[in-house]
Amino acid sequence: MSTRTPARPDQPRSRLGTVADAIDRFSELTGQAVAWLTLAMMIITCIVVTMRYGFGLGSIALQESVTYLHACVFLLGAAFTLKRDGHVRVDIFYRRFSARGRAWVDSLGTLVFLLPVCGFLLAASWDFVATSWAIREVSPDPGGIPAVFVLKTLLPLAAVTLALQGLAEIARNLLLLMKDPHQ
């Protein structure tokens, strides 16, 4: 006698939901971690200003670190923002749509706009980033951060995380659209 449970008709939907939930958790954790970088940016900016105007000292590396942190927040926070539905949208008609109508609009928008843009960003940045890694690109300024190649890596990473979150959104919308509307 087998202890295995028989396949249920809703099993594919459960797997789809499980994958979407896993991507959501990843985006949520990434977003919460990256959010702390804004505090670091603020503290470093205060230090840079205090050093410059209070003591007449400067640090290129500290100034560049604010740019690096800002890039991390912006690029790695994009998927988190999508998950939280925080991106700008023109919702003159959208807000009046039913949940199913919004699911269609969101899915089509993701398929037609978001995923192609992510694909383009990934393809366009690949050689740019690979070249930077190959030469271990450093800051052009003396005393700057010697890791420009790491900064540039955020471009394809942002494309991948944003595309993954877009796929999670499509999966969630698909689950909604597959439900019986009369239930």
Describe this protein's structure.
It is a single chain. The two termini are 36 Å apart. Helices cover 74% and strands 0% of the residues. Helix 1 packs antiparallel against helix 2, helix 2 packs parallel to helix 5 and helix 4 (99-134) runs antiparallel to helix 5. The chain is elongated, with a radius of gyration of 22 Å. The protein contains 5 helices and no strands. With 183 residues, the chain is an all-alpha fold. The chain has one domain. The chain has helices spanning 11-55, 60-76, 78-83, 99-134, 148-178.
Specify the structural class: mainly alpha
- Please compute the radius of gyration using only Cα atoms: 22 Å
Largest sheet: none
Total discrete domains: 1
Fraction of residues in helices?
Answer: over 70%
Strand content: under 5%
Instruction: Quote the distance from N terminus to C terminus.
Output: 36 Å
Order of helices and strands: HHHHH
Compute the number of strand runs: 0
Uncertain segments:
1-10
Helical region count? 5
Q: What shape does the CA trace take?
A: elongated
Return the average pLDDT rounded to an integer: 91
Layout of strands and helices, then pairs:
Blueprint: H1 11-55, H2 60-76, H3 78-83, H4 99-134, H5 148-178
Helix pairs in contact: 1-2, 1-5, 2-5, 4-5
Output the keywords.
5 helices, mainly alpha
What's the gist of this structure?
The chain has helices spanning 11-55, 60-76, 78-83, 99-134, 148-178. It is mainly alpha-helical and 183 residues long. It has one domain (13-175).
